[in-house]
Amino acid sequence: MPSTVDRPAQRYVAERATVGIEEFPRIADRLPPLIGSLAGHGIVPAGAPFFRYRVLHPGLRFTVEAGVPIEGGFTPDEPAFLGEIPAGKYVLETYVGAPGGLASATEAVLTWGAREGVTWDVTEGPDGEEWGGRMEVLRTNPLEQPDPSQWVTDLLFRLAD
Question: What domain count does the chain have?
Fold first, then answer.
């Protein structure tokens, strides 16, 4: 059962792409170079890397950011950019398993929210659903745990103010 958590605003460095499910590795593969770039500047990530879903387009396409939380100021080289996850109340559900199960886990949270009368921080925009805070936080380092069935991912959905 999902829980509700308060989260402070969080600065991050990210890259953004619009991809379909089959193209998702194109954005996922940007995380290691982002982390490496930060390390090259002496910056230690302030938390686990994540994917932030900005727009859910029709036809199973997403505008998604691959991001790494940071503290303090930093100006990344393009195409990376600085962003900020907004503070607020979030619904949290932790998923354990391979990435192929994330869509079902996400759908379960959204179904639960509909049953509970939850109002998400989402608006209908010209290109699809625009989310203020919808993330998959990658709690497991695949280099330390190579078995995808053991990977831990926090699903976070910001509630409307």
Answer: 1
